[in-house]
């Protein structure tokens, strides 16, 4: 347990200093938020004021970026460079390393959600009950675990270039087709039909339905769990084959 705590502390310090994380996971979504809420000021989506709707969208986008790109590519770099060898000079097993990385990423995800919600709410002064903020935060943190499995899956690539390109395509596809950059209703019907089944849309939809007062649909949760199981099993199979 002590090894995991020490490793989490080391990883947190390393990740917070990571310019890629600071730029693409924090700064860029916030810039998008300022730009799009200015363009769509006064608008509403599904009965939710656009400023709040898009806060959820950009928080989801930030979590997808950091869980798929930052987390996945960093694991691959660790494996190819000397960082993992350095960690294993300590009393740390490979399984403890992965547990530490997942805990670290969930703590970073908590930081992202907290920063976005606190900063934007201080600016926009949303009239939302505390219970809703807590429920939305818990949903986003739980749902982000699904995207960690995508990051682990991408980390199984043999080349950094391949992993980086794949991560970029996956994140862009999930963000655009999943309705995180623009409401899905603005797309043609055939795009909407695809987007409604994407994990990014279902992830954000859970938070949007909390905001609208409808509550999360059971079917939404079941589909996301199915996605998680398929991706997790796929990542474990690929990892086993590489070790073999």
Task: Determine the structural class based on helices, strands and strand pairing.
Answer: mainly alpha
The sequence of SSEs as H and E is HHEEHHHHHHHH
In what range is the share of β-strand residues?
under 5%
Distance between the termini: 28 Å
Rg, nearest Å: 18 Å
Task: Summarize model confidence as the mean pLDDT.
Answer: 89
User: How would you characterize the largest beta sheet?
Assistant: 2 strands, antiparallel
* Secondary structure tally: strands: 2
Q: What gross morphology would you assign? A: globular
Count of DSSP-assigned helices: 10
- Percentage of residues in helical conformation: over 70%
- Low-pLDDT residue spans: none
Q: What strand order characterises the main sheet? A: 1-2
Can you describe this structure?
- The protein is an all-alpha fold and 244 residues long.
- The chain is 79% helix and 2% strand.
- Strands 1-2 form a two-stranded antiparallel ribbon.
- A hairpin with a 2-residue loop joins strand 1 (44-45) and strand 2.
- The longest helix has 31 residues, at 50-80.
Which secondary structure elements does this structure contain, and how are they paired or packed?
Blueprint: H1 2-16, H2 19-39, E1 44-45, E2 48-49, H3 50-80, H4 83-87, H5 94-124, H6 130-154, H7 160-177, H8 189-195, H9 199-212, H10 218-243
Antiparallel strand pairs: 1-2
Helix pairs in contact: 1-5, 2-3, 3-5, 3-6, 3-7, 3-9, 5-6, 6-9, 6-10, 9-10
Structural key phrases:
single chain; 244 residues; mainly alpha; 2 strands; globular
